[in-house]
Specification:
The chain is an alpha/beta fold and about 350 residues long. It is built from 14 helices and 13 strands. The strands form three sheets. A seven-stranded mixed sheet has the order 2-8-7-6-5-3-4, with helices on both faces. A four-stranded antiparallel sheet has the order 9-10-13-12. Helix 12 packs parallel to helix 14. The longest helix is centred in the last third of the chain and has 22 residues.
Length: about 350
């Protein structure tokens, strides 16, 4: 079985494993206060062109999301997001378990707009019983989105300006950020540092064994953040393992370079489906692709390849997701391309 159902099925990029082996016998203090973590922070700050940014390392994406959102909200405040957003549909109510309500908005192509944010905020503020309604105080988006689409620089700028005008914070979930950076260079790390109050640089899905970097360019969310981390079990005792991995992956542009190859593999897979006569469920430029196919074609392909059933389109067809990663092998892609061509009779 070849795996294309997610971008964390493999272990880690060879450069990360090499770094872990080479530093294995080093001894450091714990909880990410070591020299390796500080070096990784320096690299991230330099690449973000933000020397004063706070950078925190945690193990997973859900952990990062709930920490940032909890730290940024008061008890009566909630977070706006797309109704397809990860915090709304794939985190088992982790944010709401902290006591904060997720406030979903209907997306277009997986994205929410500045106008929607403004409307939602003004609707609550203008209600005569506003003190009885959860107050929106943060906007959460992901880049790429849950359906693999990307926010343009103009869309992110509009969201940022609207949030700051209205007194909200903007948080970008970058669990797959490497693939987004590779697919849309106009939205780079310095741009995100100028635009967002907080964002994550995902490692778990982009070449690390585990790990996410939380970047806070401004000061709005920093107060007592490590207290939040400790209370939520997010301080890894062997924190140096996070620093070593990020140091290896962020050096010399590897994070984006390796992501770009994964995007190219995904786009080749997308083109193979199109050539075989299968329509796109939605068009994407990064490492996730979504295809509409007859149920029989999905069943045939999934006998040999682990892929994700995304949902029912109609009685005869379903939507399917395939994902590549920085660890996807070219030889596995070649096998998949051949098998996709063999599905042409189902189209």
């Amino acid at each position: 079985m070849l795996h294309f159902e997610c971008d964390y099925a493999c272990g880690a990029h060879p450069a990360v494993l090499k770094a872990l082996m080479e530093t294995n016998e080093e001894q450091h203090c714990g909880y990410s206060e070591d020299e390796r973590c500080e070096k990784a922070r320096e690299i991230i700050r330099e690449q973000c062109a933000c020397p004063d940014a706070a950078v925190h390392f945690v193990v997973g994406g859900t952990q990062a999301n709930l920490l940032v959102i909890e730290a940024g909200l008061r008890s009566f405040e909630g977070v706006l997001c797309a109704d397809t957003g990860h915090i709304n549909v794939h985190e088992t109510g982790a944010v709401e378990a902290t006591g904060h309500k997720v406030l979903p908005l209907p997306p277009t192509d997986g994205k929410i707009s500045a106008d929607q944010v403004r409307e939602a905020v003004l609707l609550q503020r203008g209600d005569s019983s506003h003190e009885h309604i959860v107050r929106p105080a943060m906007v959460y988006i992901s880049h790429p989105t849950e359906i693999g689409t990307l926010y343009s620089a103009d869309e992110l700028t509009a969201l940022s300006e609207t949030c700051h005008e209205l007194g909200l914070t903007l948080f970008v979930d970058g669990a797959r950020l490497g693939y987004g950076l590779a697919a849309m260079p106009e939205v780079d790390l310095p741009f995100l540092a100028r635009t967002c109050d907080a964002f994550t640089i995902g490692g778990t899905k982009v070449g690390l064994l585990f790990g996410e970097a939380i970047v806070m360019p401004g000061k709005a969310l920093r107060d007592c953040f490590r207290y939040h981390m400790k209370q939520r079990g997010a301080m890894l005792a062997k924190g140096r393992l996070l620093g070593v991995q990020f140091e290896a992956m962020m050096q010399d542009g590897l994070y984006v370079k390796a992501s770009r190859k994964a995007n190219q593999q995904a786009q080749a897979i997308k083109q193979a489906f199109v050539d075989a006569g299968f329509p796109l469920y939605c068009d994407t430029l990064a490492n996730q692709i979504f295809i509409t196919m007859p149920n029989e074609a999905y069943e045939a392909l999934s006998r040999k390849h682990a892929i994700t059933y995304w949902g029912k389109v109609d009685e005869q067809r379903c939507a399917v997701r395939l994902v590549t990663s920085v660890c996807t092998r070219d030889e596995d892609v070649a096998v998949l391309l051949k098998d996709i061509a063999g599905l042409a009779s189902f189209a």
